[in-house]
Amino acid sequence: MTQHFVRENLLAARPPLKTQKGMLAWMQHNLFSTPLNGLLTLVSLVLLYLLLAPLIRFSLVDAVWNGENRSVCLGVDGGACWAFVKAKFSLYIYGRFPADQHWRVDIVYIMGLLGLVPMLIPSTPYKKYNAIFLLVVFPVLAFVLLYGDRFGLSQVDTSLWGGLLVTLIVAATGIVASLPLGILLALGRQSKRPMLKAASVGFIEFWRGIPLITVLFMSSIMLPLLLPGGAHIDLLLRALIGVALFSSAYMAEVIRGGLQAIPKGQYEGAQALGLGYPQMMMLVILPQALKHVIPGIVNSFIALFKDTTLVLVIGLFDMLGMIQLSFTDANWIAPNISHTGYLFAAMVFWIFCYAMSRYSRFLEDYLHTGHKG
Amino acid sequence: MAVLLSASLVLFAGVARAATLDDVKKQGYLKCGVSQGLPGFSSVDDSGTWSGLDVDVCRAVAAAVFGDAKKVKYRPLSAKERFAALQTGEIDLLSRNTTWTMSRDTSLGVNFTGTTYYDGQGFLVRKALGVKSARELDGATVCANQGTTTEQNLADYFRSHKMKYDIVVFEKSDEVVRAYESGRCDVYTTDRSGIAAQRLKLAKPEEHLVLPEIASKEPLGPLVREGDDQWFNIVKWSVFAMINAEDLKVTQANAAKMKSSQNPKIRRLLGEEGSFGRMLGLEESWAYGIISQVGNYGEVFERNLGSKTPLKLARGANKLWSNGGLMYAPPIR
């Protein structure tokens, strides 16, 4: 008879202790590790509840979803009037664009999306053609479609454009124009040629030194005075030029920060390889410099996106302007419509800005080549 | 600074800008400055169409000039840029609930062509306060908009009646209404037409009361640039035509039929007799265009501000002179 001192079969793995794994353990470890942390957790929960409960009650529970006019939203005490946003929705998206021509705006939105999404995904091919489409073909097509007056399309004056359409046009123009202009200005500021340097510094300091609201106001009021009699520049175009110049000055400084972070050795190395100035910049310096300042660039984009709301001061109705304008429709005036409208504006702006922010995080990780710790 | 800027604008704008009518005809539409949203005066409906009393003045002038009330390009203006926009020629006509005051009329290089709405500053109080007259408001806390003439009118009114008050001001009307509703002040003061609109934002409008006193005169009307009398006359008579039409009971609906009326006043108004259109440099059907497309003054008022609208403003001082109001237009003859 042999005695076995060694177990022949493996024991089934036992579940870990309750204090080591699972929901409770996680909570104990992360939320209630010390009495103070526990207290802080409880206080935060209470605060969160105090903040969120009214918001959910206002926006979902007590809200009115359907209706034709203000009468449906009068009875509710402290609920959102989504019926109002629904009735004004096309105003928020298309502005005063004629209703039977909305398809033109839709096509522009879809074209923009189709051009932008593959551009943003690094693995899709034909980046060069994609960029040409997005930066050259698309703006021209979009302008023809929106403004019309050719190819059998009726003319839609820019004074009828509004809502999200204007927000996106102003933001996209600012974003697209500011990057190349900003790079040129940043390089100009570092240049050894005195005139070029002085011009760049002068431009940057001038546009950075005045508030955007002043730029817009001047373009709206003073520009007509300075132009030779009767010459009329479209209001939207004036705003676009103002925003583009303004944002490129900011962008130049962000990019200059990136350029300064590049060690001298990179320049010398590039020169030692026999690269000329354009090649050195395009192939060695700028790719590194721009990568360093992605958060700064995106920060500028987000700021610019939100600054587009300022065009209201010159009588252009971006989305926020349209929302505010819709508050004054006597058929809809009710105690809760302004809260509802602003909540809607906040949601839309948050979605766009958060998307930009997430994409910048993704890009940082994608381009991460080991300089980070 | 503002005065300096305005003065320089006046100098600039004086340079060779005379025949507004020709410019307007050449560009094919009227550039009309309106507010950035004021219930009953200028606002957009669900489909994005501008409407309101001020907007109808723009439409009337376009109807007189082009025979088509739709030929208007609206330029929404903030209170700050409204005069500059007119002076620089950004707009041909300013119809933006602007109070006709002496300083504006004389020093800004603009001319008021008449009054389209007689407004006045009023007071809104809670019924529970038990106040029946503004004279009982001694020691009250008053909510008002910041930086408007409202503040000055309030000071004038309380000082002249030897009463004390505390004022709480806010930038936006929404904030003023909230503050009043939450009980931060006893009284909300602004123009009466504004009270009618802001009152709709209160949770229980029926618990509030507009006091009978009117603290100021606020005649609102359209403005044109100084120095173009023909254009001034066109705008002035476009409004007069609407008032005369109400006087003569010519309405949007019956205007076509009224053309064959035997009443010489109506015949002259509708261009069937005389050559009054030519005197303005317009077609003889100028007033017919206004009435058939925009309506007479009474119709315009009822459509935008009257009892069938949520604002439910009474005609009050804006009744015809023959009904005891102030609306009076010189005759067409």
Gist of the model:
The complex is a heterodimer of chains A (373) and B (333). Chain A has helices at 22-30, 35-61, 71-74, 82-94, 102-120, 127-147, 164-190, 194-209, 212-221, 223-226, 235-260, 264-272, 277-292, 294-307, 319-326, 337-367. Chain A is mainly α and 373 residues long.
Q: Can you walk me through this structure?
A:
The complex is a heterodimer of chains A (373) and B (333). Chain A has 373 residues and is an all-alpha fold. Helix content of chain A is 68%, strand content 0%. The mean pLDDT of chain A is 85. Chain B is an alpha/beta fold and 333 residues long. Helices cover 38% and strands 17% of the residues of chain B. Chain B has helices at 2-13, 20-27, 53-66, 82-87, 102-107, 149-160, 173-181, 192-199, 229-247, 255-258, 264-269, 276-280, 286-293, 297-304; strands spanning 30-35, 43-44, 50-51, 72-77, 93-94, 110-112, 117-119, 121-126, 140-145, 165-170, 187-191, 208-210, 218-220, 223-225. Chain B has a five-stranded mixed β-sheet, sandwiched between helices. In chain B, strands 4-1-5 form a three-stranded parallel β-sheet. The longest helix of chain B is centred in the last third of the chain and has 19 residues, at 229-247. Residues 10-16 of chain B have low confidence and may be disordered. Classes of the chains: A mainly alpha (373), B alpha/beta (333). At the A-B interface, helix 4, helix 9 and helix 15 of A face helix 1, strand 2 and strand 4 of B.
